[in-house]
Amino acid sequence: MQLAYTWGKNLDDGLSHQDSFNIRADRALSDIDISQRVVVLGIYDLPFGRGRHWGANWSKLADLALGGWQWNGIATLSAGTPLGISASNNAGIFNQAIRANSNGKSGKLTGPVQSRLSLYFDKNVYSQPVAFTFGNMGPRLPDIRSDGTYNFDLSVFKNFRPVERVTVQFRAEALNAFNTPRFSGPNTSVTSSTFGAVTSQANSPRQVQLGLKVLF
């Protein structure tokens, strides 16, 4: 868990705290906080082919077709980053960061993200502060985060030995192999017409690439 005080260096940078006389009120989770993250890597050389458990005495033709295969995979699973709800600056101050008001309830909604694209959280919990007042919220919500990452990159390699000291490796790689979307964060401005809605995707769709590598 990461904590941060969010404030700028000068007016040109844009002050990011709401009340200059109460900066401690901006104590909150960092906007890059990721509470849970797991990365798993696996490499498996198939035990077939010359010099391996099965097929150690295969002919060159059999080894060319069935030997030298390798499977690889990387799985990345992580939670999203915390969201912050903003409001329009009607307090008459130079600070750009004006928070919304909360009615004290949690706006968290559960269920698959794809079923909540038009209403990612309960937007009725949050509102625009009245004129010349600050919002009662902190910079970021502790219980509502952007969509997490569930990505799997898979590949298969095939090694050929045309001559003794040269290895040619064919590589077929699939990035985001299962074509799992990761959605961008929802609109978090209470005065926006799309407040609470997710309108874009944060990752790329499945990408397949082929390559040839020569080792000598």
N/C terminus separation: 46 Å
Strand order of the largest sheet: 3-4-7-8-9
Q: Return the structural class.
A: mainly beta
Strand content: 25-35%
Q: The biggest beta sheet, please?
A: 5 strands, antiparallel
What coarse outline follows from CA principal-axis ratios? Answer: elongated
Order of helices and strands: EEEHEEEEEE
Into which percent range does the helicity of residues fall?
Answer: under 10%
State the helix count.
Answer: 1
Instruction: List the domain count as a whole number.
Output: 1
* Structural Rg: 26 Å
Describe the structure.
Strands 3-4-7-8-9 form a 5-stranded antiparallel sheet, with no helix packed on it. The protein has a two-stranded antiparallel ribbon with strand order 1-2. 3% of the residues lie in helices and 29% in strands. It has one domain. Residues 1-14 have low confidence and may be disordered. Strand 7 and strand 8 (166-175) form a beta hairpin. It is mostly beta strands and 216 residues long. It has 1 helix and 9 strands. It has one helix at residues 60-66, and strands spanning 3-5, 27-29, 37-45, 69-78, 101-102, 126-127, 149-163, 166-175, 207-215.
